Amino acid sequence: MPTFFYKHMAVIQRSEFALALNQIASERGVSAETIMESIKSAILAAYKKDHISDENEEELEGVSVSLNENTGETKIVKDGKDITPPGFGRIATQTAKQVLLQNIREREKDAIITEYRKRLGTVVNGMILRFHGTTIIVDVGKAEAIIPPSERIQNESYFLNKKLAVYIKEIQEDTTRGREIVVSRSHPGLIEGLLRREVPEVNSGNVIVKEIVREPGSRAKIAVYSEQSGIDPVGSCVGQKGVRIQAVIDAIDGLEKIDVIQWSNDPERFIVNALSPAKELTIKLDAKEKIAYINAPQEELPLVIGREGQNVRLASKLTGYTLEVVGSEKEKQEAEKIASEFDPSNNEK
Fold it and tell me: pTM for the complete prediction?
């Protein structure tokens, strides 16, 4: 048979190990070089376990593993000399395999954590897998993530297999369960991420979300802005008949009322907008102390204050100003009573 045929067969045989190596690398999402190093480390660990005592650690000096990347043939080498013990390959195979698999799993976790680290600050779809005490374990695709109690919407219902959008908040290092991906239902970033999904103008950058404040499970205010002529940032986010903002509300179980307001670099105008739906307001600013004094007709005071002071409280957080409602204590008490009995913002999106 011609010589070239034998050479061709040898190439095929030599390639089997390389093909398997590349296949594992592709499936695990790690490089072939990383797996090669894992194999070498595993084999060296097996050699040390069976042939080097703790008292003779110095015998490991100059010892390395030679691994043929084509055939997978392995040798123990010291100072360039083959010192592979008889039968070592058979004895060490199981130990090497265990160490290798563990190493590959760690590399796989590293690759997944690296991927999700790049996705910090984004919103992904998840599904509740189980509960660990007060912590919720969520499937977020290639990995599991946790929703700690502090990142829950307190009045939201959570149950097995529930599908929900979550905000990737952080990667916690060195916890009792190792590295963990922390996701949130209460972070303002969840609202912004949902807006990006539902509002093309936000996703493209034509509408800019300047600020979001939330009292999760109750109410949120969003300040939006656009430098593009002909684009109404508020209208873009709300959508025709409120369909876009309603999709965002539905994604948080319909638990929060959301006010979308026009951002302005004029503090007075921004504060007036932030106190929506109240109207006919007069603002007096103390820019140095960052205090704004709000004058409003008596019938508008319940709208300014909101249920349990929520409207003025969120507007203060949104604008960065302390908002003082001007009026007699009797008027303000009456306004708070009206607001607590009926929150006029219930019909506001």
Answer: 0.74
